[in-house]
Design brief:
The protein is of the alpha/beta class. It has one domain: Vaccinia Virus protein VP39 (Rossmann fold). It is 38% helix and 19% strand. It has a seven-stranded mixed sheet with strand order 3-2-1-4-5-7-6, sandwiched between helices. The radius of gyration is 18 Å and the shape is globular. The N and C termini lie far apart (44 Å).
Amino acid sequence: MLNILDQLRMMPEVARLAKRTPRDPAAAWEGYWSRVRSTGTEGEVLWDAEIGTEADQYAHVLEGHMDDGLPIIDVGCGNGRWTRWLAGRFPSALGVDVAESAVRRAARESEGLPAVVFRTLDLTVPGTGRLLQEEHGDSNVFVRGVFHVLRPRQRRDLSENIRQVVGSRGRVLLTETNFRGNPLSYMQSLGARPGSIPAPLERAIGGIPVPGHFGRAERRAAFPDGSWSVLADGPVTIEAVPMSGRTSTSIPGYFAMMGAR
């Protein structure tokens, strides 16, 4: 049960950890991934849970709305877990991430797999979407857990670049965490307590931008109705690595399948 007094007692430790995060988001992500030594269920990366129950929520949406003859681009690919899952469903999968250390790890973890490529690229930079469009043509796009850590201007810039990438034939599947409480209650829901913060969560607090929530209202602001059509959307459950003795860690989420107008 979430406890406000416990939140107050957690504040000094959370503030101390958060001070470590570089102000530049790209530098923060590079620093985070450069220090990762292990991934997967027993690893250090909070969101790198095994693909299973969560993927089942997306499979029918992909099959129902995406052209499986087009390539797919995984934005914010991290160590490439979801890129590899997507590669089995499309002719090719390109994972892009702002952190070069993440891209190197993704390439190592994907060694020997066909049709999987990784690239360091910041898709919040204007013009990068057109670059990918010129190289790959219309493509599908998958985004998991990126928009909820971006500032409003970055969200708009990423959305515009994605619009360039999908063109007239591609689609975008967006899935984001959507916990509606404050950051401290969010941390409590992941197992944090005064004097005890699970290691993967502690690494995230001390290394990457503070997450927000991202649901239908936030999607409408980032993907305006005049530029996008929503083909399907609704609640989902985002899986994180097990923490605090749990067998799994689930986070309320939101998904949207969209096409550019």
